[in-house]
Write a structure and sequence with these properties.
Strand order of the largest sheet: 2-4-5-7-6
Strand content: 15-25%
Helix content: 40-55%
CATH superfamily of the largest domain: Histidine kinase-like ATPase, C-terminal domain
Mean pLDDT: 83
CATH topology of the largest domain: Heat Shock Protein 90
CATH architecture of the largest domain: 2-Layer Sandwich
Distance between the termini: 28 Å
Largest sheet: 5 strands, mixed
């Protein structure tokens, strides 16, 4: 009975995690579908909307595949990706959906090629989770913004996501990565986004933290191992 209960809890957490991660791309799909339904756009705009819907549908499929792979603890295939290219792609997607909805400027400050260890789909999930939280935190502030930057530090890459929202109180910095812990009011948060992100990052030998000393907003730092020819085992 105990084993069965543990399985049910795990299934519930996985289902909740999939639902949480799909909310952002599905929201984008719904937004562009409504624009198409209005019938006010010209041919080039309709093609742009259809392309965005296709890309977000692919993102949904990738999210489900990556979360199921993580839940199964599939063998590591030493996957790598260019995190700077992924940042640019993710910033564009979040800016077009959450950014426009909340009137928040989302910018990428990255240059060149920065290969890191980890599957593109899983790192994409991490970036989107932190960026969406940053956009929602900055919303309503005077001239709200979110900025994503990257740098190489020895054998690791650090991705910084900064916003000019109210910040994260020092006393809860150690709790925000706990499953189901949320500071969002009105039942708008599940408390799963950062917990999932933490699990995905630590499994490939990285880390994620909220800088408790940052002022005038919040700064999250995602540290990822740089790609090497040898690769590494999953944790």
């Amino acid at each position: 009975m105990t084993r069965q209960a543990e399985k049910l809890v795990a299934m519930g957490q996985l289902a909740a995690g999939v639902a949480h991660e799909l909310n952002t791309p599905l929201g984008t799909i719904l937004g562009y579908a409504r624009l198409l339904d209005e019938g006010k756009a010209d041919a080039s705009r309709r093609a742009e909307y259809a392309g965005a819907i296709q890309q977000e549908a692919k993102r949904c499929a990738r999210i489900v595949d990556q979360l199921l792979a993580y839940a199964r603890r599939d063998a590591c295939h030493a996957e790598t990706c260019d995190v700077n290219a992924l940042i640019r792609e993710t910033v564009e997607a979040v800016s077009q959906c959450q950014g426009e909805r909340h009137c928040v400027r989302v910018e990428a400050d990255v240059e060149g090629f920065l290969p890191v260890r980890g599957a593109q789909g899983q790192i994409d999930i991490v970036l989107v989770n932190v960026m969406v939280n940053a956009v929602q935190a900055a919303a309503g502030r005077p001239e709200p913004w979110v900025r994503v930057s990257s740098r190489a530090d020895g054998e690791r890459a650090t991705v910084s996501i900064t916003d000019n929202g109210p910040g994260v109180p020092r006393e809860i910095c150690g709790k925000i990565f706990d499953p189901f812990f949320t500071t969002k009011a009105g039942g708008t948060g599940t408390g799963l986004g950062l917990a999932i992100s933490h699990s995905l990052v630590t499994r490939i030998g990285g880390s994620i933290r909220c800088d408790p000393d940052w002022r005038d907003g919040a700064r999250f730092e995602i540290v990822l191992p740089l790609a090497t020819p040898e690769g590494a085992e999953c944790r």
